[in-house]
Amino acid sequence: MSLSPSFFNQVRCLTHRRSLRFNNDAFTVRCLSFIRPKSEKLLVVIGGGAAGVYAAIRAKMLAPCLSVLVIEKGKPLSKVKISGGGRCNVTNGNSFEKMVFVENYPRGHKELRGSFFDIHGPADTMSWFSDHGVELKIEDDGRVFPVSNNSCSIIDCLLREARRTGVQMQVGKIVSNVSCICDGKFYVKIEKRTIDIIEHVEADYVLIASGSSRQGYDIAIKLGHSVVEPMPSLFTFKIEDTHLLNLSGVTFPKVKAKLKLGSLSKTIPQLTQIGPMLITHWGLSGPVILRLSAWGARYLFKSNYTGTLIVDFVPDIHMDDVERFLIQHKNKLVKQKVINSYPTQFGLVKSFWRYLLEHEGIDGDMLWASIPNNALESIALLLKQCPFKVAGKGQFKDEFVTSGGIPLSEITLSTMESRIRPNLFFAGEVLNVDGVTGGFNFQNAWTGGYIAGTTIGELASIIHKRETMILPSSQEI
């Protein structure tokens, strides 16, 4: 049988398979999954994460005439689901002042000082979710979560809005190649992961929001971009100290920690941080450690994740005062055992006090009267400058972040469009931007996605109006 030209005019998807099936009644193209009128512009979003879905919704909302196709290899918004221990740390509400906010981005803090967060900042993100039915709360440390304490509230909201606006989402597929064709469009190769099927679509716009996926980087390179080598960020420290095993679960509300690395000759102010710290069965974690790992990510990589961590457990007390408190305590409790009566001024738990005594070789059953003052000076020094040997990196399960990606110098941040390839856009972790823990990485995704979606939606709307404009007839002229 023959097919009318109108069939092909209505189909902008060419599907290739090892065999095409024919029968007497009809011609069947297997897995012909994306059909649209030829006049419609098409945006292909590579990646169904926070940045990609947010951008798709924004673009479709501004340009209902635009066809939007999101390609995701796994489940959409999978990082959203597991972040924040399954609660989804949406953003950070500690400060909406841009110049303060950007200092939470080890990679990007200089470039993001421009209009990036002015266009769509944390307050805008919170308003967006609130307007779409998700009630949010700001916790004491500034982290923003849904009141439900369930990431599904965020996921359901985004997927519901994507469906409402008409965003098409295809999962279990990957974009294996994107090439430019003569009329400025993109030829996008899509493969299904489980079976041998290849599809091609002709896209007017492409948004790469593939996170730290190698495929996203490879596509960007083929389209003329460079990539800053991706490396882990936001991780815990493995510590070589068997005595720490007995302290697993002990938390310190406020410590001052300084990271020293053999590969680093210069002083980096951000490698000294203040904040809560947690002892784990493998080493050290908590906000102060995660911030150090983020700021030191690339230096730690060069040092093979080894170095020395110096921790001040009483940062608000001067060394001389620590020594004085210890001596006063000794003189007051001369007949009591050292392990049973320890200074409360330092806010220490008994297990950590025992750790300090063992570190200095002091028997806990000794009486305070038997402890020489020079031993107390050693304990004071340990409280103020306790060294830990960093022997590797652990995993932070609440947030998976990579430093590196597409250099921001190759992107126009006010539009998120490539400076190298027109109508090519980027958003999210695929860029060389990463933040410390606390909702900053998601805010980068929301902002970048919003800006990219806005730019694409406005471009598509302008072109649609131009192409559908009714010209006056010769009689009217």
Automatic annotation (TrEMBL):
Domain RsdA/BaiN/AoA(So)-like insert: 232-401
Keyword Magnesium (UniProt): no
The keyword S-adenosyl-L-methionine belongs to this UniProt entry's keyword annotation: no
Keyword terms of this UniProt record: FAD, Flavoprotein
RsdA/BaiN/AoA(So)-like Rossmann fold-like domain: residues covered: 43-454
Cofactor: FAD
PANTHER family per UniProt: OS12G0638800 PROTEIN
Protein name: Uncharacterized protein
